[in-house]
Design a protein that fits this description.
Keywords: Glycoprotein, Lysosome, Membrane, Signal, Transmembrane, Transmembrane helix. Belongs to the GLMP family. It comes from Zosterops hypoxanthus. Required to protect lysosomal transporter MFSD1 from lysosomal proteolysis and for MFSD1 lysosomal localization. By secondary structure, the protein is mainly β. It has four helices and 24 strands. Strand 19 and strand 20 form a beta hairpin. It has two domains: 247 residues, no CATH class; 28 residues.
């Protein structure tokens, strides 16, 4: 993990996380220069390196300021940008009331270096609006908490996402921010950038197992949409609770290049429990037809192709029930999403659940077989008391 590699100032934030394997390496570049974003690059070289031209990156024309050396080692690259935070109230009988949008590219961000933990492989990017007329952020902040992994496992906090060494977790946190309405709900707009040849698809998975995330039986994967104004919420009939995955696939293949994965729940506590759950809904994957908010690292890496050959997709993720009471009471919201390369992790039944199921199903079957044997044995002894007639 490197903070602002090659730059001594902490006035801007750029965090480079690299995972090196025997024959390849993965690069995650997180930054709040402009809209907060992450650049993901997979290479075929274990010694590939991130290069940054800081003078150009901080200029008005950052195209070409970020690249991977050697360039021909790159096999796949994508980006995720967190663009806007919407707040609306479902006040009755007036219907939906939208408040002024929080544009994340206009936030003021704290130095990420203060929260960087090289041992736990975590860092937190925390910010507030540069101008806050309503003082909603006077006692609160918006944050993105990043966690990298050295091996596979499961996160210790709900929703207990399963991860691999090829993935990282991002936790979106809204803490202490005063809602502007009595029944406010929040919506996070997320955009992805894909180079030519790759497409995004939203997948949904269901499971009868609620061992790790009680009451959540479906996982969703995806992120992109087709048409429509991203500033307007899509249909009020969202995807039901699930595990979602936003996967990137080659146009002529079913193999998976990368993914975003999350469970359809958020939480209203720093130490989440089952009763702290907040409903989370993915409101449509669409091909974005608007200009991407300025994010210097995205422009710096993709350059001119960002507006020509690259595909920009977006998704709205909403938090809260019909009345938004959980957030209004606790003033805390956290939502976790896993992002990485290759196929997203898939939950399986743990040995404990398999053992319990085997005992639950095996015991009646064993009793049935034993009873049948006893009945046959008793019947055989009953008839064996008589001598056959010669």
């Amino acid at each position: 993990m490197q903070y602002n590699p090659g730059w001594n100032s902490s006035s801007v934030n750029l965090l480079h996380v690299q995972a090196a394997g025997p024959e390849d390496s993965l690069h995650y570049v997180w930054s709040s220069i402009g809209a907060p974003a992450v650049l993901l690059v997979a290479t075929q070289s274990p010694s590939s390196a991130l290069r940054v031209n800081w003078t150009q990156l901080l200029s008005a024309s950052p195209a070409g300021a970020i690249w991977i050396d050697p360039p021909d080692s790159v096999v796949y690259s994508t980006a995720v940008v967190f663009t806007k935070l919407f707040e609306f109230s479902e006040a009755k009988p007036l219907g939906e009331l939208f408040y002024p949008t929080y544009d994340l590219s206009e936030f003021s961000w704290d130095s990420l270096n203060h929260t960087l933990n090289h041992t736990a492989l975590t860092a937190e990017l925390r910010g507030v609006p540069a101008t806050d007329p309503g003082s909603s952020f006077s006692n609160g902040s918006l944050a993105f908490r990043v966690t990298a992994y050295e091996a596979g496992g499961r996160d210790g906090h709900l929703p207990s996402l399963l991860h691999t060494a090829n993935s990282s977790q991002l936790e979106f946190i809204l803490a202490g921010v005063a809602p502007r309405g009595n029944s406010s709900r929040f919506v996070l707009e997320v955009a992805t950038v894909e180079e030519a040849g790759a497409v995004r698809r939203l997948r949904s998975e269901r499971s009868i197992d609620d061992e790790y995330t009680p009451t959540i039986f479906e996982v969703s994967e995806g992120l992109a949409w087709a048409g429509g104004d991203p500033a307007v919420l899509p249909s009020p009939h969202p995807v039901p609770p699930q595990v979602l995955s936003l996967v990137a696939e080659p146009q002529n293949s079913s193999s998976t290049l990368g993914f975003l994965q999350w469970k359809a729940t958020a939480y209203g506590s720093r130490s989440p429990r089952r009763e702290d759950g907040i409903q989370c809904r993915a409101q449509g994957l669409q091909a974005a037809n608007w200009s991407l908010p300025v994010s210097s690292i995205i422009q710096a890496y993709f350059g001119d192709s960002l507006g020509s050959t690259c595909t920009i997709s977006a998704l709205n993720v909403s938090f809260g029930g019909e009345e938004g009471e959980v957030y209004r009471e606790k003033r805390y919201l956290s939502w976790s999403v896993l992002l990485g390369f290759g196929e997203p992790p898939r939950d399986t039944f743990s040995p404990l659940v398999i053992s319990i199921t085997a005992v639950a199903l095996g015991t009646p079957l064993a009793m049935l077989l034993l009873g049948s044997c006893l009945v046959l044995l008793v019947q055989r002894r009953r008839y064996s008391e008589y001598e056959p007639i010669n």
